[in-house]
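agent: user wants the structure for RNA polymerase sigma factor from Streptomyces sp. R39. delegating to structure tool.
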Amino acid sequence: MNAPRHHGGVPEFEEYVSARHGALLRTARRLVHDPLDAQDLLQVALIRTYLHWDRIADKQLADAYLRRVMINARTEWWRARKLQEVPTEQLPDASVDDSTEQHADRALLMDIMKTLTPNQRRVVVLRHWEQMSTEETAAALGMAAGTVKSTLHRALDRLRQELQRRDPDSASVTPAGRCWPPAGRRAR
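agent: tool returned. relaying tokens verbatim.
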């Protein structure tokens, strides 16, 4: 591997990683469902970002840059693995504090997320879990804002249909047919 081209950015990069590691790992876990794969994905993304740290003029955009690197790396992995599906048994564990109902909801949500295309999943993760704006999501994914909106609309419809198919009496679906985002998710 090539040696880094910069020397002064190492402490700055280390501070960034220390401050953002938890959030970046959560993003990686949403992009790949296996916790060990998520750690590997984040490690690859951090290495690639470190090698180009001096090219990021506005360090406030480092999260978006790193997310893009994670998405690209994950796409490379999927192509190499020929898009193998992750078995349901390998869903991320819920924290100890979660109630049984929250754990079941999270497991169901992670399972129905698998029905989305990779592109739809990326948009949902960035818009709803990462709380990125439409414009930020578009920039991170290299697509137009209108494409983000239409992709999100189709993804939410697909999630809604899959939830209703699995649980026709679901109380999560409002009279307007909305089941997304899960209750309390936007108020993080």
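agent: one observation worth passing along. The helical segments are 10-31, 35-51, 62-81, 100-113, 118-129, 134-141, 145-166.
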